[in-house]
Amino acid sequence: MSMKRIDAIRLKSLVISKLSNAGLDEKTCDEVADVLIHADRTGVHSHGVMRVEHYCTRLNAGGLNKAPNFFIEQISPSVAIFDSDDGMGHSALIAATDHGIELAKETGVGFVSVKNTSHCGALSYFVEQATSQGLIAIAMTQTDTCVAPYGGAERFLGTNPLAFGFPVEGSEPMIVDFATSATAFGKLLHAKETGSKIGTGLAIDKDGNETTDPNKVENLLPFGGHKGSGIALSIDALTGVLMGANFSNHIVRMYGDYDKMRKLASLVIVIDPNKLGNALFATMMLQMVTELRAVKPVPGRESVLAPNDPQVQYAKDCDENGIPVAPGVYDYLVS
């Protein structure tokens, strides 16, 4: 099944049109569309425009607040709690990260816990908000469960992603953004949408046996065995448990219960290296990624890549040739 290539400006207008029809205001539509197209432009189609139909379904069913009142409670000069009032997670995380940036510039660090939120899309977008201003960022969020814990045959963990962003002098930032599952749940949806198989060691069927058929997947596996399992638990603790919200199997499911607010929690931490006495941080990061790329590659590899290199390359191709969109997703957007 071949993907359609769509110009970013046209794709954004299609997304905004759908979200606007579902009742979101102009600013929110613009923010959500930006985050989704950022994901598709960087090759993370699992978090791109394929999600629009889901958001519209939830908006229409009443499981998202179309007109939330964001509220920031300042706990200390560096710490704040951001109540997203069940609004769109993308807009909440943009606003929370902006606040974290302000705090970091004043005090050296901004720690912003986000509560009463919803699915926010690719975390790389938010850490790039900080790196574009020469700051470091860490972002994480919980999700509903679809991952078996290490040694388990039943779901207990979300894909609970984690992202780091580091500014690099005169270059694209170094972004590390990954799900703590062996693959993102959205990539599973993408495999179903495109009729392809998934890799080995990524998922199990209802009996706990490994499978590569996306249609037989009951649960995903954590990456790196007990290590990924431990990090996923830690993210749930730093988001949902910290905010006195839900965790693990208590979280309202993304697909289903469309009329219920999801009450997810996220966390954004922004650090200003200048305040820590290092005005040369971005320059040193350039040295780090340059030396990393100079490492001798293993046989069969052209070179060692720095985190974010493949995404930057993918984005260039999208800008020249259009963003790939699955036919079923395109049909929905133009309908």
From TrEMBL:
Q: What is this protein called?
A: Ureidoglycolate dehydrogenase
Q: Does the keyword Oxidoreductase apply?
A: yes
What family does this chain come from, according to its entry? Belongs to the LDH2/MDH2 oxidoreductase family.
Q: Which source organism? A: Vibrio algivorus
- Provide this UniProt record's keywords sorted from A to Z: Oxidoreductase
Q: Which domain of life is it from?
A: Bacteria
